[in-house]
Structure formats: structure tokens, C-alpha cells
# Entry
Amino acid sequence: MRYKIDEDTVIDMEILSVVALLEDLPAEGLVRGQVGTVVDCWAPGVYEVEFCDGDGKTYAMVALKAGQLFRLHYEPVNQAA
# Structure
């Protein structure tokens, strides 16, 4: 799902996208840079993200706006030059 944040920024998120948090969320015990997985889309530009430890145990499940996330890519991505 593509979501336009502003005139120059478009976020492309899908279920199971791996994302990094762009801001601290002290109420949730999360800090900028923590990595999670998109597990649901609640509304345009709003995603449920699951944060797990190295053993796969969930330590946070939070609904976040696309602008709070950065999608990570573990394989080459083809882009138009």
C-alpha cells in the first residue's frame, strides 16, 4: 500500500514489511531505531507494528503512522534511474 506523506514523500508499506522506528515512544518503551514488522493496516497510513526480541517474543504492539516508520530492505530494490 502506498501512502503519500507530503508532496515529496511516498511510503510503500505492505503486511510483513520490516520497518525501523523514526522517533522515541517512551510510553511504549520504544526508542528510535528499533526494528519491527508491519502486521496489519488499520487505515490509510496507519499500521500495526509488532516489535519482538531475539527469541521472537513480542514486547510491543503499536499502531503507528507511516511518517513514524522507515521501511528496511534486505535485498536489492529496482528503481527507475
The CA atoms of residues 49 and 62 lie 5 Å apart. The radius of gyration is 13 Å.
